[in-house]
Design brief:
By secondary structure, this protein is mainly alpha-helical. The chain has helices spanning 5-37, 46-52, 56-70, 85-89, 98-124, 134-153, 157-172, 176-189, 196-202, 206-228, 230-247, 250-255, 269-277, 298-322, 335-351, 365-375, 382-397, 402-406, 411-426.
């Protein structure tokens, strides 16, 4: 049955209002970013620029500019947890003045995140041409603090969220090679989404996994080889492994006397366990504070971490193997379950990560939208979905409390969101 002209008009009006709000917000953020980076104009020394500005994009921009001037990559400017591909990927931005580049990057990131929201709505509303539904508004509002943090700091979280949602959107549209390309690019920008390849391997979606592997090889290896040469490419990948994989590993976080990134803004599971189960200064300043409820041997803390992650991985894998491998599923009622399984892997990427900052949480767009939608429907997943939304609100409010953040106020909603996704993924015949 076709939609009436009246309903089409309401839908168009609703989406136009959201579009205007989004564009105004994007313009405001771009202006804020310019104000934050204008003090760097005319400065030619990185230390002076760093003292005058606060921005992750500043470090991306300066690292890329340094390569343009010297032909060499360096981690001296804070870009040390990224593959060698990433600073090369950021080279075009270094051709612009820092304030212009930073504002344009933040604006583009917000636009792409808006596209991700639209893709999410298109999938979960089954292509309906209806006005924006309540669950969509709830999702956008709940993610806003983390989206804002990411946009103002000029981080890549919004771009990754777009690529992850685009991956699933393309899978549901039967364009699996393109989906793999999006996933491969996401993994090259930040290693977190690489875990999602396991989901597609378990589902026997070989073209998605093959597309991701092809992009990783062509861009992740081919681009550095072409621009850096074999020796520097090998050294840069070795440096990435030493810094991002070894020095910032969960093992080092838990077992080292003074782990790096120990201050309260790091919401990674191994760091939270270390803070809660051992006395560890979480302030990041000369005025320490502690949140440990117990004092346990570090080996016990490590065992707790391994048990939690292995259990989560096992449960997620078992639930994933329950569903049909193909899309669309033979039975349309299985579609909700498969979507929940993908959402669970999105959450698992954050749960298992050795580093988690507030600007990583936009990666929860797909699972949070699924939970918000389920919270407003009468089905077996509604109770846990409602709990997730309440916990997410409390987690956002806890951003104002260093003590709460140090104790895991940002990761707790992600853990609950993973549980909600598992419940959805296991409900093969959910209405």
């Amino acid at each position: 049955m076709s939609a009436s002209p009246q309903s089409d008009t309401r839908a168009t009006r609703g989406w136009r209002i959201l579009l205007v709000i989004g564009l105004v917000y994007t313009a405001i953020v771009a202006a804020v970013v310019v104000v934050r980076t204008v003090p760097a104009v005319g400065l030619t020394d990185y230390d002076e620029i760093r003292a005058a500005t606060t921005s992750d994009f500043r470090d991306f921009w300066w690292t890329a500019r340094h390569f343009c001037e010297t032909g060499k990559l360096t981690a001296d400017f804070g870009v040390h947890n990224y593959l060698p591909f990433f600073p090369l990927f950021m080279l075009p931005w270094s051709l612009l003045p820092l304030p212009v580049a930073a504002a344009a990057f933040s604006a583009l990131s917000l636009v792409l995140f808006g596209v991700a929201i639209a893709l999410t709505y298109n999938l979960l509303a089954n292509g309906s041409r209806s006005p924006p539904r309540t669950w969509l508004i709830i999702t956008a509002v709940l993610l806003l603090p983390y989206v804002h943090s990411c946009a103002v700091m000029g981080n890549v979280g919004l771009l990754m969220a777009f690529l992850v949602v685009a991956t699933w959107f393309l899978v549901e549209r039967g364009r699996e090679w393109e989906a793999g390309a999006a996933l491969g690019l996401a993994a090259l920008i930040k290693l977190l989404p690489a875990l999602l390849v396991i989901f597609f391997l378990l589902k026997r979606r070989w073209r998605v996994a093959g597309g991701a592997a092809s992009v990783v090889l062509l861009l992740g290896l081919g681009l550095p080889l072409g621009m850096l040469g074999l020796d520097q490419t090998a050294r840069q990948h070795q440096a990435f492994f030493d810094t991002a994989v070894r020095q910032h590993s969960a093992y080092q976080t838990i077992m080292t006397d003074k782990p790096g990134k120990a201050y309260y803004k790091n919401s990674a599971l191994p760091m939270i366990l270390r803070r809660l189960l051992t006395p560890l200064n979480a302030s990041g300043t000369d005025e320490p504070f502690y949140v440990n409820a117990l004092t346990l041997p570090r080996a016990v803390v490590l065992a707790v971490f391994v048990i939690v992650v292995v259990t989560a991985l096992f449960v997620t894998t078992v639930v994933t193997l329950r569903g049909p491998p193909s899309w669309p599923p033979p039975d349309p009622s299985d579609g909700q379950a498969v979507r929940g399984q993908f959402a669970a892997w999105c959450c698992l990427a954050l749960i298992s990560s050795p580093l988690v900052w507030a600007h990583y949480l936009p990666l929860c767009l797909w699972p949070l939208a699924l939970a918000a939608r389920n919270a407003l429907r009468r089905n077996r997943t509604r109770p846990i979905a409602m709990v997730v939304l309440v916990c997410w609100i409390l987690g956002a409010a806890a951003l104002a409390s260093p003590l709460a953040r140090a104790a895991g106020a940002q990761l707790a909603p992600v853990l609950l969101l993973w549980i909600a996704a598992i419940v959805t993924g296991a409900a093969q015949r959910d209405a």
